[in-house]
Amino acid sequence: MSVHAQVVIIGAGIVGCSAAYHLSQLGWQDVIVLDQGSIPRTGGSTSHAPGLVFQTNTSQTMCRLAQQTVQLYRALTHEDGACFHTVGSLEVALTAARWEDLKRRVGYAASWGLDPELLTPTEARDRLPLLNAERILGAYYQPTDGVAKAVRACEAMARVVEANGGHFIGNSAITGIEVEKGRVRAVITDQERYTADTVLLCAGIWGPKVGKLAGISIPLTPVQHQYVRTAPLPELAGSQTEISHPILRNQDQAMYMRQETDSYGVGSYQHAPMLVSPEAIRSPQDAPVMPSILDFTESDFAKPWRDAVDLLPALDGVPLTYSINGLFSFTPDSLPIMGESSVRGLWVAEAVWVTHAGGVGKAIAEWMHSGQPQIDLHECDINRFEAHAHSPAYVWERGAQQYREVYDIIHPRQQLLKPRPLRTSPFYMRQCELGAAFFEGRGWERPQWFESNAAHDVDILGVPQRGEWAARFWSPTALIEHRLTRETVALYDMTPLSRLEVQGRDALPFLQRMTTNQLDRPVGSVVYTLMCDTRGGIVSDITVARLADDLFQIGCNGPQDAVWLRDHLAENEQVQVRDITAGTCCLGVWGPRARDLVQSLTDADLSNEAFPYFTARRIFVSEIPCVALRVSYVGELGWELYTTADYGLRLWDVLWETDGPFGQIAGGRAAFDALRLEKGYRLWGADMTNEHSPYEAGLGGVVRFKKGDFLGRDALVHLADQPITRRLCCLVLDDPAVVVMGKEPIRVDKQVVGYVTSAAYAYSLGKSIAYGYVSADYAIEGTSVQIEYFGEAHTAHVCKEPLFDPKGARLRV
Ligand code: FAD
Known about the structure:
The protein contains 18 helices and 41 strands. By secondary structure, the chain is α+β, with helices and mostly antiparallel strands.
C-alpha cells in the first residue's frame, strides 16, 4: 500500500516548512513533509542556527528574498514568543576600505528598497552600549534587520499547513526516490511509500546525498562553521527579553555577534574552510547531539575570541557554555539552488540561509504552482551550472573559496583564481601570446584586454582618470581597443557565449511559438528576438539565424535557455535542441575595415548587396568552413564567424596574419562592454530579466503580434495598452570622470526613482554613461537625476538613445 500526496517535501527545516506553507497558501492539498529527524527540531542546520538576518545583499534577488523573509517571519505567531525580533543590525568598519564599502552598501541597499544609514562610532555605541566605539570608524545601520527564531517559525508554519490538511511526518528517513521515464513517481522511506507527481527536495546539507537517490546532482558542499555562546554577562543581568540589542557584524574580522537574553553568541568565519562530504554526515540515529553539529575545534576559535573581546570588552573573562562546529551548505557561487531538476516533477530548494528561507519558500512554491518564476531567479536557477560545476573537485574548491570570502569586500570584477584555466577557446594560445588579461565566466577564459595593444599609438591622455574602485580590474588599454575597433578592425572571441542548434520538421513552428519576433523568413535571415513568459517578462533575448528550412542557430544567454526551450516542447513535436557551444567557436570581426579583412580571405561576395546586415551565409574563410552572421554587438560593420573548434586556431591565424593594411587588433571584453553600451545594446541578466517587459526594456519593436500566437502574447497585448511605470533609460553623467559600476541608486530630490543596470565610459563620445530603470515620471529626455556612488550624488541627465550612431549607418555600409 502507498500513501498518495499532491506533493512530498523532503526536509522539515526552515526551507521545507516555508515551501510547504506557501504551497498550502496557494491551495495545494495533501502536502506531506517528511524528515528523518523529529519535528520541529529535526537536527538539521535550522535547529541550531542563531538566526541573524542581514537583508542587505549586492544581489537584488537575494535582498528581495530576505525582505520577504522578514515580512513572513514577522507575521507568524507562536505561543512561545515572536518568530522575528526586529532589533536592527550594525555592520561595523574597522578599516578604511570597509568604511568605503559601507558607503557603497548604503547605495545598493537603497536601490533594492532598504533604508539604511551610516553611523558615527558614538552613534553606533548609543545603539549597542557594549560596543567598543574606539575600535571602529563607523557603522552601517539597517533598522529592519533582526533575529529569526527559526525553529519557532518552522512550527508556526507547520501548524498552518496542517490546518489546511497537510502532514508533517518525522523520524522518517528517505531511502529511495522512484523515477519512471524521466519523471518522479514516489518517495520511499524506511516505513512507507509515498506516491506523488511532484517532490521538493529541501534536505539542506544532505541534499547531494538525497539527490543521488534520483540520479540528480546538487552542487553544494557542507562546510563547518563555529558558533559559541557565553555564560551570562553582568552587564545583562536580569534581562528577560530574548534580544533587544541590534545584531552585530564585524566583517573585517569575519565575525558576527548577537545578544541571547543575558548572554552573547559569537560566530566566526575566520578559520580555514573545513569541508565535509555529504556522505559522511551522520543520521539522527547515530548522532549523539545533532547530526549537523561536529566537534568544536578550540584552536580555531582562539583568535576570533580575542577579536570578539576587543570589540565587545564585556565578553572578557566570561566563560563559554556552548560551542559548536555547525554544518551548512556552500555552492560554487554561494547562491541557492532552485528549480525543477532534470527529473520531471522533482524540484529543488537547496543551500538557503534562514535569512532567505521565507522568500525562497514563496518563490519556489509560486514557480511550482505556475510553472515559471514570478520574480527574477536566474542567479539561483538550478540550470545555471555548466557541466564542470557538478564535479566534486569544482564544488569543493569553489565552496571553500566562497567560505573564505564570505565577508570579504568583493569587487564586481574580482576573479576567483582556482580552478583555472578550465575552459579555453581554440584562440587561447594566441591570446596568451598577445598578453591577454583573462577573466573567467562559466568556466571560460575570456580576454578582457591585451597588453600588446598598449603599444599602439592612440592618445588616451585626454580621457579623464576614473576613480580607484572603477579602475580596479580594468586597464586603459581597453580604451585603445575601443578606439581601434571604431577606426580599423578588431577580433573578439565570442566563443564563450552560448549557442544552440534547433533542428527538425517542427523547428520553425516551435520557435515561432517560443519567441516574439517573426522568424518565418527566408533561409539566410537573422532575427533578434525575445523569449517571454506568460506574464510577458523577458526570459531571454536571442539571435536566431535560419541556416536551412528546418535548421536554426541561436545565440543565447546560457544553459538555462536550452532547458526553457526543451521544457516547452510538445510530446509529438519533432525538434532537437542541441547545445553546440563547446564544439564550436566564434570570432567577431568588427570595425570599418572588417569587410576588407574578411574579403581578402574569401571568394564569397561580402558586399552590402550580396551579404546585407542581419543575414547569414555559409562561406569559406581561407580553407575554413564558417557560418558567417552579419551582426555586431559593438555597432560596427562586420561578421561573427562560427566554425567547429578544430578549425578555430587556423581561423584566428589566417585573419591575424593576412597581408594588407587592415590594422587588425585583438579586442577584449572591457572594450566590448563599453562599445555595446554606447550603442544601447541591452545585456540580459543586467538590463533586463523576466521582471521586465519588452516595453519597459525599450524592446517593444521586436514584439510582432501579427505573426500569430506565441508564449506571452496575451500578456504583451495587455501590457502594450498599459501605461509604463518604469523605463530603461540612458543617463549621461555630467562629470565624465565618474564611471559607476551598476546597482547604484538613481535619485530625484533624494527619493530613489530607479537603479543603474550597466555603466561604462563611452570613449567614442567622451562621456560617462549609465543605463538604468527609472520611474516613468522621470524617464523623460533632459530630466536631471542624481546617481549615488560611494555616498556622493553625481548629476546625470536622461538622454535620447542610442548615443552612438543612432541610425545604425555604420552597420549597414
Ligand atoms: P536543514 O535545516 O538542515 O533541513 C534539512 C532537513 O532535511 C533536515 O531536517 C534533515 O533531517 C532532512 N533530511 C535530510 N536528509 C533526509 C532524508 N534522507 N530523509 C528525511 N529527511 C532528511 N543562517 C542565517 O540566515 N543566519 C544565521 O545566523 C545563521 N547562522 C548559522 C550558524 C551556524 C553555526 C550554522 C551551521 C548555520 C547558520 N546559518 C545561518 C545557516 C542556516 O542554518 C541554514 O542555511 C539553514 O538552516 C538551512 O535550512 P534547510 O531547511 O535548508 O536545512
